[in-house]
Amino acid sequence: MTIFSRQIFQSIKQELEQLNINLKKMIEADHPILCAAAEQLFSAGGKRIRPAIVLLIAQITSSDKKISAKHKRLAEITEIIHTASLVHDDIIDNCEIRRGIDTVHSAFNNKIAVLAGDFLFAQSSWYLANLENLNVVKTISKVITDFAEGEVQQGVKSFDSQITIEDYIEKSFYKTASLIACSSKAATMLNNRDKLIQNDFYTYGKHLGLAFQIIDDILDIVGSTKNLGKPAGSDLKNGNLTAPLIFALEERPDLYKFINQEFQSEQDISIAIKLIKHTKGIQKAKDLAEEHIQLAITILQDKYFTQHIKELLLITYYIANRIK
């Protein structure tokens, strides 16, 4: 984690440290293999962006600026759901490395990985029910449905050269933005805030989540394996056609050939990446991410005191700066 990102989380440092401890307790299982598989998921850490957003929104929308036990549990649930989705993603994409370590299905096998992912979704559902807030349960449960919808859409559109930016944004919402949007909204619900405030933070989370996914997809083209924690060009290899490529197709129709051949070799991926880099595709994708970042910022700045939202804005800028 960079110095900048550590500064962002300074006010919730203790909560995040406790979150890491609690996550390991929450995923304990009776069966040693399942327990080891679940442990594998959290051993590589992660930035904890999603739970941090939940904790900060809890602080902002609380009358006494304190973070309740239920909010801390919601933050933990959010991270477990996110991690469970990564397990299933890695199986579908046959990704062998995540955050620089072996993925669960690489360390064990596909069967154990599927069960580990299902176990985490089940655990998150159990802890969610114990929040005893029906509206929050409904809101967060929708996320799991959205994950499935996103995976189906991605599968149907695999190596589909006719995919549009609108298709891509819809899939990105289901796969990434839904969790951030819904958990942001749920944090305000636990503070009994009105529907206008709930919708403000839902919309903030939606735009932030879309920007996050677009930037991730740009980094898959321009980043290194070391920085990404997984091989560069993974999206191309798995047929996930993302914003940089979709925009690049407007200038380089010869990219269609590689898509239609399903990027048969590492050389195909390497050539495609070079072609994309020599178009305006990456810049257009950056502009699209920036558009969503600005929409997220505007929602906060127009309605909330800057002093209260300072750290939430810092997270937003941090996400934007990942590709600067």
Automatic annotation (TrEMBL):
GO terms, biological process: isoprenoid biosynthetic process; quinone biosynthetic process
Which cofactors? Mg(2+)
- Keyword Iron-sulfur included in the entry's annotation: no
Q: Which Pfam families match?
A: polyprenyl_synt (PF00348)
Q: What GO molecular function terms would the record report?
A: metal ion binding; prenyltransferase activity
Q: What is the similarity comment for this entry?
A: Belongs to the FPP/GGPP synthase family.
Report the protein name in the record: Prenyl transferase
Tell me what organism the protein belongs to.
Kuetzingia canaliculata (Red alga)
Gene name?
Answer: preA
